Amino acid sequence: ELSPEDSETAFCTLANREDLNLEEGSVQYCLYQFTRNEKLTETNKLLCDVCTQMHYGPKKNIKSEKKYVYTNARKQMLISLAPPVLTLHLKRFQQGGFNLWKVNKHVKFPEVIDLAPFCTAKCKNVAEGETKVLYSLYGVVEHSGTMRSGHYTAYTKMRNMNNNLSDLVLRGQAPQALETEPVKGQWFHISDTHVQAVSAAKVLNSQAYLLFYERLL
């Protein structure tokens, strides 16, 4: 049940979504599409308990007569709790009939990503008045091959301890210091027992399957 105050902010986000300069084929574009406002109409109408009771009376009468009122509604999936560690799992398969095939298209992802446009206005673990929820990339899992076979490798960043992340995980304290740059460190490519130092540019050009970000603020 939503109070009048909640209903007014139900579709509000920490930062204006319409100000985003989205590039199709990017992680931000994927997040925007995943959290878009959807209209539920016709066969997707929402069962409304309040409307039903207004039309048919108390619930005890509704159950016996099995009468319900469905209404048009809006639905939007937003983040209500900013996690210490953000894991993004990219769907890299497509289905056509009974056939499945892997999607090899490159998906662009940044070193620092802002989740504020995808967070509810009353997002937890975010300081009041804050309009940014930043995360720094520290790990990538890449898959090469097909749907039937292949090989997983990983990119990971060797870096100093993130004190903000520790406070959030251990004490539940939202970060207070404003940090907007990615956590400094050296990237490594790991394939079975082979480990090699690589540049950030190589990481950002990889065919990401899983992305791991740590909270900055």
Automatic annotation (TrEMBL):
- What species is this protein from? Semnornis frantzii
Q: Record's superkingdom?
A: Eukaryota
A GO molecular-function descriptor? cysteine-type deubiquitinase activity
All copies of domain USP, residue ranges: 1-216
Q: What UniProt keywords are attached to this protein's entry?
A: Hydrolase
Name this polypeptide is given = UBP16 hydrolase
Report the Gene3D superfamilies cross-referenced here: Cysteine proteinases
What gene is this protein a product of? Usp16_1
- PANTHER family found in the cross-reference section: UBIQUITIN CARBOXYL-TERMINAL HYDROLASE (PTHR24006:SF852)
Supply the CDD domains for this chain.
Peptidase_C19K
Q: Which InterPro entries does this UniProt record tie to the protein? A: Papain-like_cys_pep_sf, Peptidase_C19, Peptidase_C19_UCH, USP, USP_CS
Q: Give the GO cellular component terms, alphabetically.
A: cytosol; nucleus
Q: Tell me a GO biological process for this protein.
A: protein deubiquitination
